[in-house]
Design goal:
Layout lengths: L7 H6 L8 H10 L5 H12 L6 E5 L5 H10 L4 E6 L2 H11 L6 E5 L12 E7 L8 H10 L1 E19 L4 H13 L6 H11 L3 E10 L3 H17 L5 H16 L5 E11 L2
Parallel strand pairs: 1-2, 1-4, 2-3, 4-5
Antiparallel strand pairs: 5-7, 6-7
Helix pairs in contact: 9-10
Length: 271
């Protein structure tokens, strides 16, 4: 991330306000190459149980790649709508879909105030979106509101407290990971999805954990802005962060870099 940008959490909440908003498009494209990500995508598609003719809402569609894949599965008799709060992401989604011929449309939207009537969709899918939403109860209630009876929601979210990253600076490493956890509005959402779905009246709930293994370069990107902002707030000293980052680089060069986190993918049906 460019040094002029803020941390990643703030960025994904306010993409259009960032100094280099296209960085977030590049970030999402790079994310697809991470070990374990495709397995989570396949799990999400399996839990969605897509069929021709279904109408699906993709909440937080980003660049629209997943919405297009879903559209190819529901076919010409189905419909996919992708929403995102970022006008840049919506523009990118429309650009990537313009010659696809798929039944997919994209629009600006907020999961806490979905601009659809009650019971508009058979499926709702969201991935790494609710983790950035402070009003999680409102968001889940809105998703359930626009689902049809018998419809299904599938959400895949990280659990930052289950993030692991090996470093020889053990105590400093703990502090860095704790700072990363604190930076997120919903740091434990992955594990909480099962309970939240149940508390909102969903049934047939499933929650499946999978390990995501980001490489060294991706971790540097993810932590860069956060650490710069933490140094400005005097939470860390620049020299200690440099030592920590240099240690990670040394481990990477020795083939010993080891990092990962847990993504929980949960599904639930509306009565």
């Amino acid at each position: 991330m460019s040094s002029k940008d803020d941390d990643m959490t703030r960025g994904f909440v306010n993409v259009d306000e960032m100094n280099d908003p296209r960085w977030f498009i590049e970030f999402l494209d790079k994310r697809k190459t991470i070990e374990g990500e495709r397995e989570v995508k396949n799990l999400t598609l399996s839990l969605l149980d897509l069929k021709p003719g279904l109408e699906v809402l993709d909440v937080g569609c980003g660049t629209g790649d997943d919405a297009r894949e879903i559209a190819s599965l529901v076919g010409s008799t189905g419909r996919v709508a992708g929403i995102d709060p970022s006008s840049l992401m919506i523009a990118e989604s429309r650009k990537r879909a313009e010659s696809s011929g798929l039944p997919v449309e994209f629009m600006i939207g907020d999961v806490r105030r979905l601009n659809f009537p009650d019971g508009s969709f058979d499926r709702v899918r969201t991935d790494r979106v609710l983790i950035f939403v402070p009003d999680i109860e409102v968001a889940i209630a809105e998703i359930i509101r626009i689902l049809r009876p018998g419809g299904r929601v599938v959400a895949s979210e990280l659990d930052h407290e289950l993030l692991f990253l090996d470093s020889r600076f053990l105590e400093l490493n703990r502090r860095v990971l704790a700072a990363f956890t604190r930076s997120n509005p919903q740091p434990c959402l992955g594990r909480q999805l099962h309970r939240l779905f149940a508390e909102h009246g969903l049934r047939n709930i499933k929650s499946v954990p999978r390990v995501i293994r980001p490489p060294y370069d991706f971790v540097r990107l993810a932590f860069g802005g956060l650490l710069r902002e933490a140094i400005k707030r005097d939470e860390f000293v620049e020299t200690e962060i440099k030592a920590w980052l240099d240690d990670l680089k040394t481990l990477q060069e020795a083939g010993l870099f080891n990092a990962g986190t847990i993504a929980f993918t949960a599904s639930g049906d509306k009565s």
